[in-house]
Specification:
Layout (H helix, E strand, L loop, with lengths): L1 H13 L6 E11 L2 E6 L2 E6 L21 E4 L2 E13 L4 E11 L1 H5 L8
Antiparallel strand pairs: 1-2, 1-5, 2-3, 4-5, 5-6
Amino acid sequence: MGILLILVTAAAISGPQSPIQHRCGWLDNPTPANWWLTDSQGEWILSVQGGYQAPGMDDMPDLSEHGWVKTNGYYGYTCACLDVTVDAAEHRITRLVKTMPKPLRQCRADPKLPRR
């Protein structure tokens, strides 16, 4: 019973969680620890240098072999699909479950995404 109480309390403190969503778009990492996803519904914050970091970011795979476009040294962007939970009001990803790199052409062909 004690473990259940801890889990319920932790869920209440962390706020409401959305169901896992599958979102695809431009995954940006322009500078250290700054990450966001731009999909058809806007920009979703994953991480801010010196501040917020969505749980699961440490498990993101190396994307440099999957169409990574460098714009600032190593930093840049790619096309990816993410399984995530979100805080829709804040446009923040609250948990990164899975990252799946996609070919750049997939995002470039999507008329709902900004051109790159």
